[in-house]
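<given_protein>
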Amino acid sequence: MAELDVLPKVIRHWIAGESVDSVGAATFDVTDPASNTPYAMAAAGDARDVALAVAAARSAFPAWAALANPERARILHRIADAVEARQHRLARYESYDSGLPITQAGGQARRAAENFRHFAGVVVALGEEAFRQGGKQFSYVVRTPAGLAGLITPWNTPFMLESWKLAPALAAGCAVVLKPAEWTPLSASLWPEILDEAGVPAGVVNIVHGIGEQAGQALVDHPDVPLISFTGSTATGRHIARCSARHLKRLSLELGGKSPVVVFADADIEAALDAVVFGAFSLNGERCTAGSRVLVERVRYAEFTDRLAERADRVVVGPPSDPATEVGALVHPEHYARVRAHVEAGAKEARLAAGGARPALLPEGNYLRPTVFADVPRTARIFQKEIFGPVVAVAPFDDEAEVIGLANATRYGLAAYIWTRDLQRGHRIAHAVESGMVWLNSPNVRDLRTPFGGVKDSGLGREGGVHSIDFYSESKTVHVALGETPIPRFGSST
């Protein structure tokens, strides 16, 4: 494909404003998921490279933190301009490297620019709290940048999710060390030219590529990195929490999901069906908020399941670069094997209504037809485990109590979707479902001002709007006496 002519052959670290190889000269192959053919080498960082990046960030931090919020916001707007100027190139890189359909990768590039503009606005509009205790005491709260932030990002929509962490960290005045996902480092190779063009001082952003167990572990373990923001699996999130306890690091962990979609008989069935198909199969099903458990009121269950299977069979699976493709190639052979193992287990636990196999015309690469399992018991592996692929489990329910139990029957609690024309019932279910976010009669439409995050095994903390700024900031309260304050006189008796 034409994009191959401009792809880098080597992807290096970015430390102190310079493109550098690993201290130990180690590299790893980067493959494209449509053919699983290596096309580039990436620097494989370890503790030595992370130490250099942390030192560069520490050196750059004081001057960056000292900038006024409006000045940092102007730089963030320039970053957004530079991202937008490269959106077509970014989309090609992202699609080629991750297997996302090119049309969906383009949307992620636009969202990345939006993230920088959003947090530029947040930090400019940000106020500070003040409290008055009558006429005697006045207290006010100031935010100061928390220091160095370690950002560890996932392989699904990698560039956008990097921007989701970079933008608020920079807006708050932190210097950062970013560790991109090793399976999808290509689009991160564009950050250096974007940051240079926007005028970000050298060392404020540092990028260390590498395997999670080496580069990511070193970042988590470094004593001079007080904040870690991680998006990824629950198992890795638990490991990061254990390792971070030694230094009492502040953590933001956005972890797995197994989000329920509740469809009542009175719902707008056409809208619910559209939302389920798009929510489950867009981005190749590799999204943490995917509605992967569909719970349908029994009187509409057979009809809805049949139509969902019908639609799944018509979803276009094809090469990521083809504008007609709706589901591309899963990101990596290891992940593809895991998803296929879930499908094989599902075939023994439930009724396969659609998909479940490789498309006949795509014999190479990590392709899977959109898959629908029906009559799935709550104990089934495909009901309980996050699959992170184009696979949905469908089950019936009879009443509100039963569906609340089914919705809450997993260890995850990131998102939920409810479809009903009875808004009182919709609110009841929304409040009863154990999740960090609920959409009522709506697909996943993000408002960047709202808190994003989950409960239970779906993570710790919230990001979005001022919640992100709070994470990357320290709050300090200053108490001021406005007049004479009576002070007990201990030790004054004679």
